[in-house]
Amino acid sequence: MHKSILFGLATVALFSAPVQADTLEDVKKAGMLKCGVSTGLAGFSQKDEKGSWSGLDVDVCRGVAAAVLGDASKVTYKPLTAKERFTALQSGEIDILSRNTTWTHTRDTSLGLNFAGTIYYDGTGFMVSKKLGVKSALELDGAAACIQAGTSTELAIADYFRENNMKYKVVTFDTSDQTRTGLESGRCDFLVSDQSQLYALRIGLKDPAGAIVLPEVISKEPLGPVVRQGDDKWFNITKWVVNASIEGEFQGVTSENADELAKSGKPGQKRLLGTEGDLGEKLGLSKDWALNVIKQVGNYSESFERNVGQDSPLKIKRGLNAQWNNGGILYSPAMR
Amino acid sequence: MQEFKVLPDLPAPVKTVGPVAWLKNNLFSSWLNGLATIVVVAILAKLLPGLLDWLFFSANWTGTSQDACTKEGACWVFINSWSKQFFYGSYPDGQLWRINLVLAMLVGIITLSIFISKEYRNKIVVPLFLLLPFIGLIILDGSLIGLQVVSTDLWGGFTLNVLLAAASIIVAFPLGALWALGRRSEMPLARSISIILIEFFRGVPVLALFFMGSVMLPLFFPEGTTVDKLVRVWIVLVLFMSGYMAEVFRGGFQAIPKGQYEAADAIGLGYWQKNALIIFPQVIKVSMPNILATFVMLFKNTTFLLIIGIFEMLSTAQTALTNSNWLGGHSTEAYLFVGLVFWVCCYSMSLIATSIERKLNTDHRN
Amino acid sequence: MTEDQRAVSSKHAFYNNPKNRALIYQLLLLIGIGYFFYTIVSNTMANMEARGIKSGFGFLQATSGFDILMSLIPFDATYSYGRTFVVGLLNTILVSIIGIILATIIGFLIGVAHFSPNWLIKKLATAYVETFRNIPLLLQVFFWYFAVLAALPTAARDSVSIGEAVFLNVKGLFIPKLIGESGSSIVYLSIAVALIAILFLRRWAKKRQELTGAQFPVLWTGLGIFFGLPLLATLITGIPFGLEYPIMGRFSFDGGITVIPELMALALALSIYTGAFIAEAVRAGIQAVPHGQTEAARSLGMKESKIMSLIVVPQAMRVITPLLNSEYQSLVKNSTLATAIGYPDLFTVFVGTTLNQTGQAIEIVFMTMAVYFVINMIISFVMNRFNKSTQITAR
């Protein structure tokens, strides 16, 4: 009996580890980046039948691993539910949280966390069945809404319907996949979610063409990676990995031509890829940090198209998430 | 004188033996029974053909992707493609032998416990049982014995259900016994603490306990220490299970005749000797069916871990259903498959429990 | 302890005295427990401060800002988080009561069916118990909700309907609502009067039977009073009730009472699952009644129905009641699975949404645990009282 208790304690010890304030050192020492992702969200973080992770959120983890460790595959994924995500980051269980998390004032200021940029500009939208003949969200008075429980969407929709003096019934589901089932079975008349998710959910319908996404976007949902407050070095690294991938697209650096451009590109490209200047060293990383990111993960455009864009089943258009000179609002600060 | 001839035996009347009699006695013994039989048969006849057709005849069996599912029936291709995930989670392909080894050891010990002679059972099987989960953990984790380290986020699927349930009950066994002893103790403090623990962990929904493990427990550890989520869940499961085991043991203790205690006292055994050598072996014996029933409950409850995002089997099924290459409604197949796996395991355990119960039932009732 | 008398002797060392030893053990235990809680509390305080989490129950007064699908009391996004707690609690109680009633009915029917002379029914009862008992409840909840109820008609006009008054579709079961007009209070009063009358009738009949042995048909008279008196009152007051029928609106039916499918699925899954366990308990209970009891009753010339109700069931209840107690408790605890399909019970509303919006993990999880604990204590109390009444009373 006593033996088993001892063993128990030993096991707890085996699986627990102290956290230090210097995340960069910890990650380098472990040789692995611990990244918190969602338990399954098409296009953002999903696991395939071989157990490997992909998605826009996952690419942030891979990018940071490539920049810090030189190898994008050195990531330990910790799938988290919406409820435990911040606790996991605060307690040091993960080094970075890249889990479809909306950047809000409250979260940024009162949870001891820092948002390291935006990787996807999203907004709450509506999807209805074409058969319903609804053209605008304002025609939905008295209808039932399918929503994922425990999300900021629940608050956004309550505000919207109250503002417009309309009534609605809220049918909540535990996962976003279940909201799709709810819409399909007719349990609710419309589905409310982040627009990116609406597209992901639409392709899952038996008849994707039978559903339309209404024009209204009722809230701002900028999604981005989150790190612990008080570790500025790590905060900077995450922030600039996100920027490097955006800047990579702007400068025309892709995973294919990155090696070549590092040698013979324009000065701006060379500075980004580390053959000129010392941007990497200022972050406490190697010179070729951004080269690794773009070579192994791709620039923003490659990552976007592969996971949620034209090369994926989701087929989401760039929209707001295009470069600033292309009709979007993506804008990386200057790389110099 | 007329000679008596032995007439040949007549066959038994149709009304008492043979299939017709069986039908009459068992299905049509009264008009009410006959009606019930007809209704039941009619319902079965209406439901079964469609069900069998969907399950087998027009089901899709071969292929590797969703496109292979062209026929009307179930898409078993989906289950087939994800079967590795369903059973092993994301555990690295080359390392699967480690899981199989641990499972084989578990099966081995169970077989051993059935065939080994009684005198060695307690000396060999019991320690093996107690050690197995820890050996299993060490093998699966790999960091202590120089194998490739497989972090717990890669563990998953049905392995995790089995592993968590087994690792929990084995620690809960001594802990539950301790609480049960505490509840019977004459020391007021020990008794009240035991009662509080037992009633708390039995009276609170296991889902609430899981939430405690996932969002509250990290706050309980010293600042700067993190404990793996799986370990936190394990701690919660152990405590939950201990509450139930304690009550099972309490029933067992009550079933032991008072003479056993008095005899142990009479030969001068101390408290721990008395309980460990005389009472407890008997308690385990009489409560074995209940222990198994409790284990089945725990095993089924491991699916609740889905709610807090642990990749056990049901949760893996959910993940598979959201994968963008497999969207298109395979939920019925997934739930049926998971249900079948659990049913086979739980049903065989309940069969074992029944047979033990029958074996133990040596008194003269009935 | 029997050794006490021998052990108390000044010759023996201090620690050999069982009383002293017990004291020392308990002191050590107290210190251990105290240290344990001290560590946890101080760790938690330090962690919460480091992460800037506020503690306290002030959040209960704050505006919730979200809506809830089903509420037995008025609720919308302008009400407080405290109100969400009450809404969730009432929904939990509702599904528990429905579940307990249905599970008991199913359990007793299947349990008795196990003793049916009909082979097919006997086998079906066994199959029922072995199937539903051995499949995880969460899976069953999913099955009823996502596979069965989701397959109901989608459009309101395709609904399954009974007499254009009751409608069933994927959005729920729509039934007419009884609306009391002036004079309806007299009818309500008559129901109360009927109940009290039945109580007195029972007491009188029991006393008469003990004195004279003459039996009085309490059940039938009771039923007569229960339905007759309110009916009479209704007729006298000129039927002071109106029915509000569900009417097809733009998206769904409006008016009447809506039973949401989440409630139906959860109640179904809970009662079918728990029913299987209760059936086992009933079977065990009936089996525990010695066969001689039935035979003795038969030889006294009792009718088969009387044997069941007067001889077998009362004795079986002694075995069944304690088992029922624990089954009811686990049903209430299992109702938390509502969160998996979004039935707005205490767990979904409070631990789900409210916890996520406020981040007050410790307060919310403890409040919820306490609620379930108290509900189970109440069930235990009631069932123990009932259990006492079924035990043999020595005269």
From TrEMBL, chain A:
PROSITE patterns: SBP_BACTERIAL_3. GO terms for biological process: amino acid transport. Residues 1-21 form the signal peptide. SUPFAM superfamilies: Periplasmic binding protein-like II. It comes from the Bacteria. Keywords: Signal, Transport. Gene3D superfamilies: Periplasmic binding protein-like II. Residues 32-261 form the Solute-binding protein family 3/N-terminal domain. Coiled coil: none annotated. Belongs to the bacterial solute-binding protein 3 family. This is Glutamate Aspartate periplasmic binding protein GltI (TC 3.A.1.3.4).
Automatic annotation (TrEMBL), chain B:
Keywords: Amino-acid transport, Cell membrane, Membrane, Transmembrane, Transmembrane helix, Transport. GO terms for molecular function: transmembrane transporter activity. Coiled coil: none annotated. It is a multi-pass membrane protein. Gene3D superfamilies: MetI-like (1.10.3720.10). Residues 158-353 form the ABC transmembrane type-1 domain. It comes from the Bacteria. The chain crosses the membrane at residues 31-52, 96-116, 128-150, 162-181, 193-221, 233-253, 291-314, 334-356. GO terms for biological process: amino acid transport. It holds the Pfam family BPD_transp_1. PROSITE patterns: ABC_TM1. GO terms for cellular component: ATP-binding cassette (ABC) transporter complex. NCBIfam families: HEQRo_perm_3TM. Belongs to the binding-protein-dependent transport system permease family. HisMQ subfamily. This is General amino acid ABC transporter, permease protein. It comes from uncultured Thiotrichaceae bacterium.
UniProtKB/TrEMBL annotation, chain C:
It is found in: Cell inner membrane; Cell membrane. Residues 89-383 form the ABC transmembrane type-1 domain. It is a multi-pass membrane protein. The chain crosses the membrane at residues 23-41, 53-73, 93-116, 137-156, 186-205, 217-243, 263-286, 364-383. It comes from the Bacteria. Gene3D superfamilies: MetI-like. GO terms for molecular function: transmembrane transporter activity. Its main location: membrane. Signal peptide: none annotated. Keywords: Amino-acid transport, Cell membrane, Membrane, Transmembrane, Transmembrane helix, Transport. InterPro entries: AA_ABC_transptr_permease_3TM, ArtM/GltK/GlnP/TcyL/YhdX-like, MetI-like, MetI-like_sf. One of its GO terms (cellular component) is ATP-binding cassette (ABC) transporter complex. GO terms for biological process: amino acid transport. Belongs to the binding-protein-dependent transport system permease family. HisMQ subfamily. PANTHER family: AMINO-ACID ABC TRANSPORTER PERMEASE PROTEIN YHDX-RELATED, MEMBRANE COMPONENT OF AMINO ACID ABC TRANSPORTER. This is Glutamate Aspartate transport system permease protein GltJ (TC 3.A.1.3.4). It comes from uncultured Thiotrichaceae bacterium. The lineage of its organism: Bacteria, Pseudomonadati, Pseudomonadota, Gammaproteobacteria, Thiotrichales.
